[in-house]
Amino acid sequence: MQVPKRKSEMDRLAGRQEDHYMTAEKVRRLKADLEDLERVQRPKAVEDLTKAREMGDLSENAAYTEAKARLGRIDGRVLSIKDRLKNAIIIETGADPSGKIRIGSTVVLMINGNRRTYQILGSQETNPAAGRISHLSPLGKALIDRRAGETVTVAANGRDIVYTIVEVK
Predict the structure, then answer these.
(1) DSSP annotation of 127
(2) Which CATH architecture has domain 106-168?
């Protein structure tokens, strides 16, 4: 029987960079999810598994198979969240005293005459439509350690886009 590998193990073997940066709010949400999984969902899944086991023949018991799979998914999520919390690097939001852009900074950019505001976060919290980009994205990488007044050029879709840093907060 082949043992399935965890995503983090597969990423490590593939040479992908793991990103443990997250805001205190993300840590709080993960802890709340973990508490719900451990105190509500897992006990209910164990109870469902016990009831299904009492129905008799396990080889043809769909309720038992489903309850066992559900418990496995919950246990997998618990392990994943615990691993993420154990390795979490908390992002300090706000401007760096030196004025440089860092993970956690909010930047105002001028792009083709349009102002856009982005917060640079870890890859677990990105949502470009909401103005949150990863420090590992091409734009995020280009902005790190830059200051207001500087310009950066990022290649996207076969063309170069010039961004002017208006403000770092």
Answers:
(1) B
(2) Roll (3.10)
